[in-house]
Structure formats: structure tokens, C-alpha cells
């Protein structure tokens, strides 16, 4: 792809992960925008953010929405995890599940891409199953210290970034995006 894509995020940790995973095949620039957080499904949230970003940037954009869904809560907090983390933190996430035997969760990353204003929005989603555990590892990147992916004995926060960036929900979504960008 010859055009530079603007990845719209103010989260430096997300930016670093995305660059580490796809910088070899996609030319990215970054811009932080205060986009409206609509209520709806993960797909509706990502699509709305992408359309708004494309309108502001006036060119190719990539936006990301991350969700964390608890099985015991039917997939909630889902795309609203950012707001839950801001209000109740890691301990609060664990407290939400204290009354449930089922601590399973899905980490869901949804990227939305558009060539620009009025262009179709393409959605790419990656899912990683896991469990919610008491916070372990460095804090500072959302709910990573509380999410232990299936098949591992470490939380995302405890893992070396090189490992996380080959198994995470974000990695899985970005692999689909890369395939799309390379084959179009």
C-alpha cells in the first residue's frame, strides 16, 4: 500500500504494539483525536469512530476499539471496559466476578479501516480467550494485569512484549488487517 494510514489513538501503549506488529508492512502515522464514544455493539462503536476519524483526517484511517467481555456477564463490560477501568480499576474487575465460579473472559480487539470520508469501513477483529485473575505484573496498560490468556500461566502484563505481540487479540486482528492491505 502506497498511502500512509493515520492510526487514530492517544494511547501510546497501543501505538507501540501496533507499530511492533505491522510496521514491516504498513506505513503508519499517528494522531490523537477525541472521537465520540457511541453506545452500541463493538462493531457499531468501531465503525462510528472510523467514519468520524476519516471525516476529520480526510484520508486513510485506522481506529481500534478494545473490549473485555466476561462470560458470567454475557459479554459485558465489552466495549465499555475503558470506563469500568477508570472507575473501579483492577480490583473492581475482580470484585465483579467474586460471586461467580466462571472467571472466563474474551479479550476482543476490533480495528476499523477506511480509505477516507464516505468510503466503506472494513472491520477486522481478533479474539483471545482467557480468565480474569487478581492483578499481576506491571500496571499501566489497562486491564493487562488481570487478563491471563488461555494456555499461559502469565497475564498479558507479565509476558514479554515479544510474546504478547504474537498471541494477543490485537495481534490476531492486525494479521487480518495486514492480509487485507496486502491483497487489495
From TrEMBL:
Record-listed ITP binding positions: 9-14, 49, 65-66, 141-144, 164, 169-170
GO biological processes: deoxyribonucleoside triphosphate catabolic process; nucleotide metabolic process
GO CC terms: cytoplasm; nucleus
Entry's Gene Ontology molecular function annotations: dITP diphosphatase activity; ITP diphosphatase activity; metal ion binding; nucleotide binding; XTP diphosphatase activity
Locations listed in the record: Cytoplasm; Nucleus
Residues reported in the UniProt entry to bind Mg(2+): 37, 65
Catalytic activity: N(6)-hydroxy-dATP + H2O = N(6)-hydroxy-dAMP + diphosphate + H(+); XTP + H2O = XMP + diphosphate + H(+); dITP + H2O = dIMP + diphosphate + H(+); ITP + H2O = IMP + diphosphate + H(+)
EC annotation from Swiss-Prot or TrEMBL: 3.6.1.66
Annotated cofactor note: Binds 1 divalent metal cation per subunit; can use either Mg(2+) or Mn(2+).
Keywords: Cytoplasm, Hydrolase, Magnesium, Manganese, Metal-binding, Nucleotide metabolism, Nucleotide-binding, Nucleus
Predominant location: cytoplasm
Top-level taxon of the source organism: Eukaryota
Cofactor(s) listed: Mg(2+); Mn(2+)
PANTHER family to which the protein is assigned, alphabetical: INOSINE TRIPHOSPHATE PYROPHOSPHATASE, INOSINE TRIPHOSPHATE PYROPHOSPHATASE/HAM1 PROTEIN
Family (UniProt): Belongs to the HAM1 NTPase family.
Function statement: Pyrophosphatase that hydrolyzes non-canonical purine nucleotides such as inosine triphosphate (ITP), deoxyinosine triphosphate (dITP) or xanthosine 5'-triphosphate (XTP) to their respective monophosphate derivatives. The enzyme does not distinguish between the deoxy- and ribose forms. Probably excludes non-canonical purines from RNA and DNA precursor pools, thus preventing their incorporation into RNA and DNA and avoiding chromosomal lesions. Pyrophosphatase that hydrolyzes the non-canonical purine nucleotides inosine triphosphate (ITP), deoxyinosine triphosphate (dITP) as well as 2'-deoxy-N-6-hydroxylaminopurine triphosphate (dHAPTP) and xanthosine 5'-triphosphate (XTP) to their respective monophosphate derivatives. The enzyme does not distinguish between the deoxy- and ribose forms. Probably excludes non-canonical purines from RNA and DNA precursor pools, thus preventing their incorporation into RNA and DNA and avoiding chromosomal lesions.
Oligomer and partners: Homodimer.
Protein name stated in the entry: Inosine triphosphate pyrophosphatase
Native species: Lipomyces starkeyi NRRL Y-11557
Lineage, top ranks: Eukaryota, Fungi, Dikarya, Ascomycota, Saccharomycotina
Amino acid at each position: 500500500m502506497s498511502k500512509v494510514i493515520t492510526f487514530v489513538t492517544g494511547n501510546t501503549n497501543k501505538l507501540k504494539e501496533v507499530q511492533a506488529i505491522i510496521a514491516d508492512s504498513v506505513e503508519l502515522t499517528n494522531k490523537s483525536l477525541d472521537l465520540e464514544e457511541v453506545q452500541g455493539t463493538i462493531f457499531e462503536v468501531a465503525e462510528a469512530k472510523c467514519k468520524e476519524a476519516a471525516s476529520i483526517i480526510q484520508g486513510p484511517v485506522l481506529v481500534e476499539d478494545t473490549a473485555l467481555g466476561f462470560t458470567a456477564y454475557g459479554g459485558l463490560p465489552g466495549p465499555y471496559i475503558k470506563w469500568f477501568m477508570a472507575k473501579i480499576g483492577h480490583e473492581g474487575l475482580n470484585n465483579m466476578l467474586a460471586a461467580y465460579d466462571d472467571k472466563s473472559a474474551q479479550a476482543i480487539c476490533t480495528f476499523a479501516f477506511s480509505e477516507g470520508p464516505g468510503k466503506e469501513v472494513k472491520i477486522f477483529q481478533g479474539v483471545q480467550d482467557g480468565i480474569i485473575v487478581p492483578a499481576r505484573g506491571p500496571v499501566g496498560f489497562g486491564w493487562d494485569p488481570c487478563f491471563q490468556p488461555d494456555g499461559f500461566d502469565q497475564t498479558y502484563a507479565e509476558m514479554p512484549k515479544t510474546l504478547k505481540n504474537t498471541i494477543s487479540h490485537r495481534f490476531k486482528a492486525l494479521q487480518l488487517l495486514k492480509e487485507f492491505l496486502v491483497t487489495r
